[in-house]
Fold this sequence. Notes:
By secondary structure, the protein is an alpha/beta fold. The chain contains 12 helices and 10 strands.
Amino acid sequence: MNFGLDRLLSDDALRAQLKGRRVALLAHPASVTKDLTHAIDALAACPEITLSAAFGPQHGMKGDLQDNMMESPDYRDPVHGFPVFSLYGEVRRPKDAWMETFDVILIDLQDLGCRIYTYVTTLLYVLEAAAKHGKAVWVLDRPNPAGRPVEGMTLKPGFESFVGAGPMPMRHGMTMGELGLWFVDRFKLDVDYRVVEMEGWRPDEGPGYGWPLLERAWVNPSPNAPNLSMARTYAGTVMLEGATLSEGRGTTRPLELFGAPDIDARAVIFEMQALAPEWLTGCVLRECWFQPTFHKHVGQLCSGVQIHVEGPHYDHAAFRPWRVQALGFKAIRRLYPDYDLWRDFPYEYAFGRLPIDTINGGPGLREWVDDGGGAGDLDAPALSDEQSWIEIRRPHLLY
């Protein structure tokens, strides 16, 4: 199959539309061709394309910054000489002066299919800036490695943030190109927007179910996104960033597991199975032990739960990562009623509310964990939101 970048590079007619125009590129380490050439070098080699600037999202163009809220500087590309502006540094939105450095911006970002992954919000901010300044935006589309399934409650009004660009559920089931179409429609943006579509993407087919597992190499789109298993679990395990439990940062399996020194993971798994066994289909939970080398519980032996979503342990249609992780929180609350579960700091610069509420786009999940309701009390509103989103996104699907 071909991603949007590959199509642009192989299509003379597409590239001809960029001739004589100043072109910017928004990219990161996973912005590579089929043969793993970075987009900057591949585009710079095209005589029709004049690269005048580049932009890097969270974690930087180089993808070197491990944690959230670590800002990247602007710099000048050492090979090609043009400026590289940081959209996760001094600012999150493009500066007016930066918008004057190009005529059309190519966005080539590998997403993970989750609302909280900040490349989604960066896409919206660039679209809004392009509408203001009369610039064209082309998304060079890439697969959603989590595929088409939808899960989670819709972000509530007033909970917009850098990890909540708009009223969508946690797992949106769209590509970046498709999300751009929805943003243009939802926010009524008057912008010259197009998607350079993929060829041959089949998100309902195994073994990748969204990611062409046997055709393309995986390059980390962010430092703690090392493989397809992480992409599959992320729409649930990302909530751990709002909890005191470790999400496995500082281990070789980040965001595929959770744990802490002061829980009994075996008891947690049993409690999860007792509370809502139907939420655990499609994966296998395994008790494990880990000692983070950095981040939460650094240097401490943690009792943990690993969520296995590979090979015979994975059922793409049945797996619901958001519910699995919600159930993990609920089990811990049931086993340890006074457990200090929720962190309190301005997560992704959202002041005045708990990180878990910023992540979920509302207080509903936290209130369900803390207030003693059964599985149906979370399932019902989530299912309603999921069904609504499936209809909302339908006109914008390209594949």
